[in-house]
Amino acid sequence: TNVLKPLITAVTHVGLDHMDQLGDTIEKIAFEKAGIFKKNVPVVVGPMPQAARDILVREAQRRHAPFWKPGTDLRREKRKSGWALSTPDGTLIDVALQLQGDHQGANASVALGILHLLRRQGFLIPDDAIRQGLSEAFIPGRLETLLPGLVIDGAHNVDGTKSLAGWLRSRPRPKNRILLWGMGHGRDPIANISPLLPYVDEVVTTRCAHPKAFDPVDLALHLQDLEVVLSAGGDIDETLAEVYAEADETIVAGSLFLAGAARSLVASGALAGITPGQGPYEEVEMLDIEEETT
């Protein structure tokens, strides 16, 4: 990020992540993020803790970099007809976002700020092109519905699981929603999963093939004191079908690698013929065999 001189720099959020590399406090992480700022190059930032914003403002001022931030320069409002997004250079209304979750409104606001600042530099970017780009933007594994009753999300830190929790809170609650949870070593299992617990009925631990993935039994032991129905599953290859058959809605989360593994399984047809909430997967298979025999 520091090889070339950018036209615009942006920081969408600052949270407690990658602390082994960036630092163990919000202030330290914000300071490292500000390393992309360049002299006289405009900066656009999204919502973040005040302590982080203060550091970014200071570093931008030190480099004489114009600074656009939420509230004063970037405004957003979610309406029934879509998002209304504003910067000092204009407003877009009725913006439809394909990306799910209210936090994507904040990200879209930052994107609009970047595009409007590029216009000031001579780039011809029509409103229709911005609207189309925002409506078509897609990130695999980010609140992605793979099948009816199956949602994956790469949330792997507290900020991510809080965003996922907000999305779950806004949706109708199914009769039985199971969280299929797997994560890597080096993160706090309880802190990361806790925001999700009010919105799920059961947690089943699993893992993907990543070498840093928690063993499902060890992960369940870390979570055993939480007030939630909890069980240790196996690898995602065997557990996804079992949970999908049992739950009315399955949420796969905790790791981008886990989300990717679930995507691959669905693409390979691993869940073909299974209906959410149909009942135990093995029992259905045995019933089919008996029916064919008779």
Question: Which features characterize this protein?
Answer:
294 residues, alpha/beta, 6-stranded mixed beta sheet, 3-stranded parallel beta sheet, 11 helices, 19% strand
What order do the helices and strands come in, and which of them pair?
Blueprint: E1 9-11, H1 19-22, H2 26-33, E2 43-45, H3 50-62, E3 67-68, E4 75-79, E5 82-87, E6 90-95, H4 103-120, H5 127-136, E7 144-147, E8 150-152, H6 158-169, E9 177-181, H7 189-193, E10 202-207, H8 216-223, E11 229-235, H9 236-246, E12 249-253, H10 256-267, H11 281-293
Parallel strand pairs: 1-2, 2-3, 8-12, 9-10, 9-12, 10-11
Antiparallel strand pairs: 4-5, 5-6, 7-8
Helix pairs in contact: 2-3
Structural notes for this entry:
This protein has 294 residues and is of the alpha/beta class. 39% of the residues lie in helices and 19% in strands. The protein has helices at residues 19-22, 26-33, 50-62, 103-120, 127-136, 158-169, 189-193, 216-223, 236-246, 256-267, 281-293; strands at 9-11, 43-45, 67-68, 75-79, 82-87, 90-95, 144-147, 150-152, 177-181, 202-207, 229-235, 249-253. The protein has a 6-stranded mixed beta sheet with strand order 7-8-12-9-10-11. A 3-stranded parallel beta sheet has the order 1-2-3, with helices on both faces. Helix 2 (26-33) packs parallel to helix 3 (50-62). The protein is globular. It starts with 8 loop residues before the first strand and ends with a helix.
State the assembly state of the protein chains. Answer: single chain
Shape label: globular
Percent helix, as a range, is 25-40%
Strands of the biggest beta sheet: in what spatial order? 7-8-12-9-10-11
Largest sheet: 6 strands, mixed
What is the N-to-C order of secondary-structure elements (H for helix, E for strand)?
EHHEHEEEEHHEEHEHEHEHEHH
Indicate the radius of gyration in whole angstroms: 22 Å
Q: Determine the strand fraction and express it as a percent band.
A: 15-25%
* Structure summary, number of beta strands: 12
The span between the termini is 66 Å
Given helix and strand content, the structural type is alpha/beta
Nearest-integer average pLDDT: 89
The poorly predicted ranges are 283-294
User: Number of helical segments?
Assistant: 11
